[in-house]
Write the structure tokens for this entry.
Amino acid sequence: MYDVVIIGSGLGGLECGVMLSREGYRVLVLEKNPVIGGCLQTFRRHGRTLDTGIHYIGGLDNGQILNLYFKYLGVMPALDVVRMDTDAFDTVTLGDREYGIGMGYDRFADNLKGYFPAEAADIDRFCSLLRKVGGTMSVEGLRRGLISDDAMQYMERSAFEAIDGMFTNPILKNVLTGTSLLYAGIKGKTSLYHYGMINHSFIESSYRFVGGSQQLADALSAQIRSNGGEVLTGTEVTAIKLQGDHVSGVEINGGDVAGGTFIEATNVISGIHPATTFDLVEKTSKIKKAYMTRLHTLENSCGVVTVYLLLKPGTVPYINRNYYIHSGDTCDTWQTEYDTARDTPRAVLFNMQATGHGQQFADVASILCPMNFDTFARWESTTVERRGAEYLDLKSHLTDRIVDFTLRRSPELREVIEHIYTTSPLTWRDYTATPQGSAYGIVKNCRSPFTTLIPINTRFENLLLTGQNINVHGALGVTVTAALTCSKLLGAEYIAKKIGNA
Ligand SMILES: Cc1cc2nc3c(=O)[nH]c(=O)nc-3n(C[C@H](O)[C@H](O)[C@H](O)COP(=O)(O)OP(=O)(O)OC[C@H]3O[C@@H](n4cnc5c(N)ncnc54)[C@H](O)[C@@H]3O)c2cc1C
């Protein structure tokens, strides 16, 4: 009998596993894949390590919020990370012009004022607004016993409207929203909270993992084990079992024909999509059809096609910043999904993977292109490696278009590509079990926060939710959500102070 069984070994599941095992709970984390980590997982092709779902993380400088969480989780000393370029950790490319996003608020503001001197006063006002939003989850707040403080006021405000109302220069507005594909921003839906919290943490400091993000999953799993907990791979939860109004445990590796194994648990935490979670719950009158329909019709963020460029060793200088490349300076930077009518990307994120400290050359670059699931919907019922020739043709066509778009200003890079490897939203769906291969889970809409922000508590007192579908996605959002989930068992003030004083 376990105190807590956790479904999924993504960042959220593993972090809950560490927090609860540290507090003496007997924890078991169950992962369907052979390798732990979900979006943190890396894989190997032609001798290179390829990242999947975390390319950089924010707030990791000493004394900053994610640093403190990772210290509390016991993983900070194990992480091998490289701080990105201070003068520009991100570059927003609009047509032929590049705008460097500086790290630290002074550099951030100075860069913007250099490009847009007439807007200097408004840039200062904007920075203080971002700091306020980012400050809703702060080291000081944690020390006072608050995981998050007064965030709701920003969840109901649209990021688009806040920026639109603050600035007049359309190019500046585009620069400020030029990284929207990082947070799957949607004009009029993405809240000031999501925009501000994510951008604030990256402006404070941005880091890449050296050798890939798998190390974070491995470090978290090692902590769980050293606290006496267990992490099992190749173990799919196929049902959540009930006894009366309570969850009694989970069935693993069952199926239509094979009977699975039952694991008894006092509490179950699900780190997977809420609709998938409730599909697993045994039939009961407690879950109404209308509730299931609601979960299944919630909008999911778009998927991503990732194109990995495996570069000839020693040929391409390593660049320690990301490039958000848009089609032109008058484009709408909130609209980033591949333009199927014109058969061209609207925006991509181009970056290089860090393989060492002070490295001279890059051996892998990746291009992330947001993609609507409809493009791949006809292969919905297929599985990996069995999707047929037409699917491969489409993937190859999209790869060409995405590479052309990305390298349009440096076509010579094509000559130094040794291999190309591409994944689609279907790859993602099969690998993380996220409906429609959505990259960032449920779209949280500032116009209807109460229906699109799914609560951690469920109809079953001992079934809790965590992960990117709840609250905010990304390394910081998922980490804070894990603390909120564990606070339901440990008490919010207790866990906040423990983290704050780590
Ligand atoms: C392409 C991409 C790029 C991104 N880039 C960044 C970035 O640069 N920086 C950043 O901060 N964030 C980034 N993110 C977001 C970030 O990766 C995610 O928000 C976060 O890692 C999600 O963690 P999670 O725990 O919610 O879920 P997941 O990582 O999806 O984990 C869920 C786990 O549950 C497992 N599972 C599913 N069903 C079952 C079952 N029935 N039984 C057992 N196990 C099951 C899955 O296999 C998976 O391992 C990116 C995301 C994507 C997709």
